[in-house]
Amino acid sequence: MWTKSELGPSNWNDINDIILKYNVRNFKDWRLPTIEELTRFHIYLKNSNQLNIYSNDYWSSSDIDWNSNDATSDKFKAWYIVLKSGIKEKEDKKICKFLILVRNF
Questions:
Q1: Range 7-99 classified under CATH 3.10.100
Q2: pTM of the predicted model as reported, rounded to 2 decimal places
């Protein structure tokens, strides 16, 4: 289940506070989607001609694995997606982006 509206903007480090306060239909188990879930959401929106609904950049819960040997790893960055285009990028966690929350069924 996805939220019907976006939240934010917020920096990545303040997201937990927003999620803890979020309560829709008495559900309190909302979370930030992974970058893979946001990618699937982009494909769904594209296939259903709804890309114009979400035109901002959205944080994912996928931060950069700073323990990896990957030269691009960085503990101060996280993944986000531009839903309109499907482009995925890394960004400093201090930068504000929008949020879409999900919950498991």
A1: yes
A2: 0.82
